[in-house]
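Support case: user asked for a sample of complex input and structure output to validate their parser. Sending the pair below.
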Amino acid sequence: MINIESKIELLKQKCSEANMRLTPQRIEVLKMIASTDTHPDAETVYEKVKEVMPFISLDTIYRTLASLEDLGLIFKVDNELPKSRYDADLSPHCHFICVKCGAVYDIHMDKSIEPPKESFKYGEVLQTNLQVKGICHKCRG
Amino acid sequence: MINIESKIELLKQKCSEANMRLTPQRIEVLKMIASTDTHPDAETVYEKVKEVMPFISLDTIYRTLASLEDLGLIFKVDNELPKSRYDADLSPHCHFICVKCGAVYDIHMDKSIEPPKESFKYGEVLQTNLQVKGICHKCRG
DNA sequence: GCTATTATTAGTAATAATTACTAATAAGGA
DNA sequence: TCCTTATTAGTAATTATTACTAATAATAGC
């Protein structure tokens, strides 16, 4: 589980550096994503955050997700599902994605995945992701 | 480069097995994707196929892409770009994706990527994908 | 602490990608 | 060649995401 307090602290620091304001909306959105391992989509974040901030708009959710991504606090899970899914866990891990129900499970690893040597031929490498696609037990059962 | 003739032959065989018809639309869409390494999106396939089949509809492109995917002849490239990108190369390889312009480059490998052991905990594994994100030379230049 | 500046937000409209619908067409088995 | 029915073209509808605007509130300077 991610330490949410330190995550908020990091948000405060990053916002200050980037001349961005530390708004309660940003705090709540980050809290929500960091407190679950379900890799929620924008709509799910919206529904959850609305419980504590009833007047937040979906637009704010999308903008905030983009901001948090720019600050490097969260990232989108690579997938081919219709909706983008978000993750606040920056430790080295990859994902098992159920192609049937869209569930995303974390696969933790002791070290981060190295990009193949040939990668550097095409440009500057920023990140390397591994996904495992399959059918989860729930969908099989 | 993919051998297109054998790809069409495989389509013929798979269609027959699945009780699906071998239509010129399916042949042309598969040809188009198999003849390029640019991993085109639906719109690009549409524009290209229209050159030889001017009356084909975008709906047919989307349906055909889904059918070809079901038959295992093509697959979607995992990405977080707004449009789905298609690939007909089934040999073991992964992708370098430029986060700026959306270009997708093939990274060929001598053997396919093995899923981490922990993957099997979550369900039946169908495929394992590796993506390298970065900024391509063109966008850096 | 108060004020002014301006980044950010809520509410909503617009766009972009994909999917659904329906009547007409054509693949392929009999 | 005919018949059945999967498939298609054309278009409408849906879904996810982004853009717009006036109102609000975070924070720097006083």
